[in-house]
Amino acid sequence: MTGWEAFAFNFLNPEVAAQYAPMVLAGLGVTILLAMLVIASGLVLGLALAVLRAFGVRPLNWAIIFVVDVFRALPPLVIIVLIYFGLPAAGLAMSGFWATWLSLTLVLMAFSEEIFWAGISAVPKGQWEAGRAMGLHFLPTLRLIVLPQAIRIAVPPLVNRTIAITKGTALGSVVAVSEILGAAQSGMAFSGNPTPLTLGALAYLVLFVPVVIAGRWIETKFAWRR
Amino acid sequence: MSDFVQAFLNAEIALASSHLLWIGLVQTMLLALMTVPLGLVMGLLLAVLATRKSRWVRWPLMAFTDFFRAIPPLVLLIFLYAALPFGGIDLGAWGSVALAFLLNTGAYYAEILRAGIESVPRGQPEAARALGLKRWQVWIFVVLPQAVRNVLPDLISNTLEVVKLTSIASVVAVPELLYQARQAQSITYNATPILVAAVIYFLLLWPCVRLLSRLENRQLAGRR
């Protein structure tokens, strides 16, 4: 075999690819489902915490800041391992899928709370005062006046952070989730050929390259004029 | 409750595994100390090159950074570690980790520094040139200091992410903190070592998170 033939046989083997493509595709489905669930729950919880923090109850805010700091400081894989291998010892067993979902949700919650909160504090004081002067109570002022502006400020950093955390779904392979990487690794083990892993890498590129490019576009679109 | 303490906060086991965890902590530090400077140098080179006008330079660079920002670092690592040997290239665990981290981290630093360089007004390098500074002097004394200052929170944030990233080296059996904690856990059948490792990560990175929080809030508030 020439060098190219050997390379193609190992990394782009059509027979192996045909056999294991359905497996990797099923993995793509799991990755997309997991990513959607993480994005939905993480962003909702992050926004909820930021709104709670806007009430300005001191002890509550300290608790929120501490929780947020913990999940910003811990590596996602450490959280996944702790939940998956550690919690069963406390009588709380969780499947790999849900352990990964919970871990990434907590991480996205922490990062998005911080970004939403930065957005809320960037809205000028006068906006709050004007809302109150118009006869709106605290919550309507927050919902109708402050949050729309805060979220606009938060969008560019939020998009990039969400992409980065969503890529963490690949960590699920460590706790036996058959998402793209897990499925591709099984395929590689069954076939003794790394082509399934090439397919897996391609699946990630198909999924994330458009998102990365869109993220770059959103960043310039929402950028503040200096 | 005592079951919980027994399984998670077991002082005896924490003490028994402290040596393993210490070795892991040193490896984690080494990984971070290797990846951050190399990644910064690579990111800086890519970011400076990206200011060239020729699209034959800019487009391949953009494709390169987008590629490594789109692919999860763990996928890259597994590919280098488990698939490349089939092609006759065996980097070993440390080599695969080093290359995967460098490519991932370099791409992120490049993107951040590029944004920083673009944020420096055109007039600055032009004025410096008009004052007779050489090209390299313009970069070192005029453009880069302002560029770095403008994106400092992002640079620190990415450095934090690099330290957190080192935990995935455990997947290819590099004996860093998480790997050592899992070893200790499987020897003792007890989750305490993992919790201790988590606490170590937290204590190590908390000051960085606090600093970042302040910088980010100040940056957003200052933009109005």
From TrEMBL, chain A:
Gene3D superfamilies for this protein: MetI-like (1.10.3720.10)
UniProt-annotated location(s): Cell inner membrane; Cell membrane
TM region(s), chain numbering: 20-50, 62-85, 91-111, 170-191, 197-218
Span of domain ABC transmembrane type-1: 28-214
Membrane-protein topology: Multi-pass membrane protein
Coiled-coil region list: none
Domain of life according to the entry: Bacteria
Family membership: Belongs to the binding-protein-dependent transport system permease family. HisMQ subfamily.
Protein name: Amino acid ABC transporter permease
Automatic annotation (TrEMBL), chain B:
Assigned keywords, A-Z: Amino-acid transport, Cell membrane, Membrane, Transmembrane, Transmembrane helix, Transport
Transmembrane domains' residue ranges: 20-49, 61-85, 187-206
Membrane topology category: Multi-pass membrane protein
Boundaries of every ABC transmembrane type-1 domain copy: 25-213
InterPro entries, A to Z: AA_ABC_transptr_permease_3TM (IPR010065), ArtM/GltK/GlnP/TcyL/YhdX-like (IPR043429), MetI-like (IPR000515), MetI-like_sf (IPR035906)
Cellular location(s): Cell inner membrane; Cell membrane
Gene3D superfamilies attached to this UniProt entry: MetI-like (1.10.3720.10)
Taxonomy, superkingdom: Bacteria
Family: Belongs to the binding-protein-dependent transport system permease family. HisMQ subfamily.
Protein name, UniProt field: Amino acid ABC transporter permease
UniProt source species: Falsiroseomonas frigidaquae
